[in-house]
Amino acid sequence: MTKKKILVVEDNEDNKRILLYRLRKIGDFDIVATSNGLEALEAVQADPPDLIFMDLKMPVMDGWEATRRIRELESGREIPIVALTAQAMAGDEQRALANGCSDYLSKPVVDPALVREKVEKFLGPQLPPVGA
Is the separation of the CB atoms in 33 and 20 below 8 Å? Predict the structure, then answer.
């Protein structure tokens, strides 16, 4: 069975580390991490992932633009994209969904159950990694 590939797009190293840790505890995934939307776009073009966690506020290219451009790609139309934002304002979730994101998660991602919920929603139930 091939591993599911998850792309994590996050410019804040602490937030990235937390999310990567949570994902590794959930399952045995092929995880690729990038630091801005341009890198994410290039990663999707090179080898489309099964799921993307996309920070919305980043330098170089923000998550809004990256999501829009990924959705324009043949290979990016159906990839689930979970928006990540620390600026959890009223209406942000609706705005993210209206702009091509499949779901929404507030940062910092401290509740592992929320990460598992998003992963299982889009990739199906996961077996815990060996030794977890």
Answer: yes
